[in-house]
Amino acid sequence: MRKLPHPTSLAHAMLRQLAAGPGTFYQICELLEFDIEDDTVEAVCRAHFSDLVDAGHAYLVDLTYHITTAARASIVPPAPYVGQVAGPAYRGTPHPMPVTIARRAAGARA
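^ that's the sequence the OP posted. Answer follows.
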């Protein structure tokens, strides 16, 4: 995989849109609000998609473009910790604690 496109470039905008989900050439261009009715704009967009595929940042499956895992990891920030009681900042000594399980009576409502 080659170096990612510059963050302010058209190709980088295409990669960010692909990170949101796969799409066809026309869908991605429409979401990015490119006027592909103009032949010059369409040619430039197609050239950028071709460069992204050649560089190994995206791949084509039938008609839809997808972002590669390596490019997604480079563009999208890592997800925060979800569902953990204590994240990486927790430095205490782990120890077992008692747990009380409370059940509602049959037919009780919250």
